[in-house]
Amino acid sequence: MMRATTLSDSASAGRTERLSDERPRFLPSRGIIIIAVLAASSIAFTYAGGRYLEKRASNATVRALVAGEDVAVDPVYASSEVVMARLHFLLFRDRLDEAQSLLDEAVPHMKPAAQADALYNLANARIRLAFHAIEKRDLDHAIPLVRLAKDDYRKALGVRPENWDYKYNLDVAMRLVRDFPQPDFSEDEDAEGESKRVWTDLPGIPRGLP
Amino acid sequence: MILRVLAGALFLVLGNGVARADTPTVHVVEPRSVGYFIGDVLTRDADVAVADDAKIDPASIPRPGPLNYWLELKSVDVDEYVRGVRKHYRIRLAYQTFYAPLEPRKLEIPAIRFRVLRPERESTLAVVPSWSFISSPLREIMPEKNGEGGPAKLLRADAPVSLSSTTLERTSMAIAGVTAVVALLLLAHHLALWPFHRRRRRPFTQAMRTVRREAAKAAQSANYRLALLALHRAFDEASQRRVLAEDLDSFLVARPEFESLRPDIERFFQTSRRAFFADDMLGSRAELTLSDLATFATSMSECERAVA
Fold this sequence. Notes:
The complex is a heterodimer of chains A (about 210) and B (about 300).
Chain A: H1 2-19, H2 30-66, H3 80-92, H4 96-106, H5 112-135, H6 139-159, H7 164-176, H8 191-201
Chain B: H1 2-22, E1 25-29, E2 41-51, E3 55-56, E4 65-66, E5 71-83, E6 86-97, E7 105-109, E8 112-117, E9 124-128, E10 131-135, H2 167-190, H3 203-216, H4 221-239, H5 248-254, H6 262-276, H7 281-287, H8 290-307
Antiparallel strand pairs in B: 1-2, 2-6, 3-8, 4-5, 5-6, 7-10, 8-9
Helix pairs in contact in B: 3-4, 3-8, 6-7
């Protein structure tokens, strides 16, 4: 308070001297400057406050999802963190189809790093399902899962080539179902050819190794 | 004769130079050739120099996308610049390998052929040659078996769910809030509102309002009288006692901020004396009009506010 008064005192001393001569009209008066600062800071405060409330609401949604509440999420407008939390919720419950359709819509609106993480988590869930399927000798189910997972790992690495976890898990997936120079897996092949190829595709099951 | 020979030799030399400038030259800066893992990005910088009127056929520039089952062309950036008589293309090719070898393995990136077009000539080829690098395995061939958890243990953990940080918002809210409060206090001070309403009163500001109000009304001698009185009361209040023309010096000693307006103040007192004591309201009104009085009151008020 004291400081404000002294400031204005010294400023006005200068003005008193000027008053008798031509007073520069282009200088806005002190009142206008104060009002402008007040308006600008109020706008900034409102904006930051709005963003803060938004983020707090999004964090509350994340907490609810992590706690296990089935909160619906708008894939387009939700923040990347909320989408990741929703994805975690769905993947933890093996609701992969819902997770896939969530990401289909949400990924273009997410931050790049979160896009890659989301694809990576989805791929991990698929590989885990594939492991279960392999244990049950259900290879017809396992191979498409691994192949989808590999695509997502590659997409994730496309965004973040430096991430070692992505590389590691893609390597795991690659050893489950190897790529071959002429992948020819069109769907119109007959079932017999399919099952034969499944066996050649799957050279080693990790558990079966000595 | 000698001249002609010289001219011929010169022509040969120049012609040779032109011929050399005709054929595109390619210089490639390769990245390291060993130590690549799955998912790594390799960047090759090719500099293709062509004749200044030539250009690379845009259709021969490869588009980003998968080249084969393990190699992807991530991006192609082409920059053009001219150095000397030749036009250069700086082409940055970024590849990403997705090969998962079981042992270190030599892999080959295929060559790229750029078609160089020149007006009225046959197109030539600028070839960025194929290039090999060693790709290394990332993991051991036979992972250790650690009983519990099954094969899913082979995987690295999922990316964690995180909360958004609100630090930035809270900091900017605090800064903007403090600025707003300070501005609000300054404004209150400026306008003498609460909590600064106990500041020194401003008699001339009040007088200015009265004079302006009277000046806005239809011209009557009563208005003029009221305006003069309002100003007199302001002088009285400002010095805490009655001020007459003779007291002007002591008034200005007590309130030096009005010193700059001394001629105006003197004129005001003269006019006032003529109006009240010589009873010549009309004459004084001609000398110092109501709007003159308003201007005077305004400058007095400004002086007063400048100090407060």
